[in-house]
Write the structure tokens for this entry.
Amino acid sequence: MTADSSYRGGDLEAVEVKPNRAEKPGQETILLLEDDRMVRSVASRILTARGYRVLEASEPQRALEIGRRTRTPIDLFLTDVMLPGMSGPEAAKQIRALHPSVRLLFMSGYTDTAIEASGLLHEHSSFLGKPFTRTSLCEKVQEALEGQPQTESEI
């Protein structure tokens, strides 16, 4: 939380406390696809502590299986861009076919500029650079959840 206040000669004026976007508790379901066990574990712990329900997958085929089997709508698909066997954007297209209203958030250790230049991601795709902080992860997740779902051409 952030606090805005003024201090004048011993008097403390009203303090307005504003929750940071990253502090807003979540309740949505997130499908997390990350092949790096440590990154996946850290992201899952952060998001679970924030109140999100996190479904984890270490490979694209497992994420697709979870997407097919879950009865709960998936609100956000958080995926690495570079994965063995299938790219994150390709997995996102297949998850989108199963869950049409899913929001997408891509992450990578490469810069967003390098990823865009590679042609793997559309310039308007939601992107989170790795390594990430607790705050940057939560802010990007909240931003993606509050935004409009990307169209097929924006994946």
About this structure: Residues 1-13 have pLDDT under 50 and may be disordered. DSSP finds five helices and nine strands in the chain. The two ends are 33 Å apart (CA to CA).
